[in-house]
Amino acid sequence: MNLSTQNPDLCSKCQLTDVQEFLTRFPIFSGAPAGVVNLFGYLSKKEEYKKGQSILEEGKNCDRLFLILSGKVAIFQYYNERRFHLQLLSGDGINYFGELALLAEFKWFFSAEAWTDVELISISREAFSKVMERYPESYQSMVRKIINVRIHRFVDQSSYLLDHISPEAWREYPEEEE
Fold it and tell me: Do residues 96 and 130 touch, judged by C-beta distance below 8 A?
């Protein structure tokens, strides 16, 4: 029997509970008061992308954090008209991108594309602001956690790039031209 056809409200409540449980495993929301997590779960959106579909584009305005429920997302950047792969994020663990969009308005400095079919949970900057207005005592802790996950992501991306750097870049000092 299909639960959603029998009682659509019950199905929505189950999905909301699943999202809230998922959020509590993410470092930004872990340890947050239940009311904060519940409200983020309520204000979040589920998004689906097909393999090869663009999720966000470098240079466009950013407005939300993405958490990967399932599938894989390629993170890349264009430099000198070449596409450089930065990371492949999977829904197998707790993976995310766009966390800085919760704190400030800027243009994306990378692109993201569905490497496989992907299910994401997104939380907009507007939703983040609404929750923080209602729970101002959690703001400082949330900002600190967002900065920490961004630093962790930066270290991961830097390590990936250093692992794949060309031997010419290993020189201590550039050769002087005569």
Answer: no
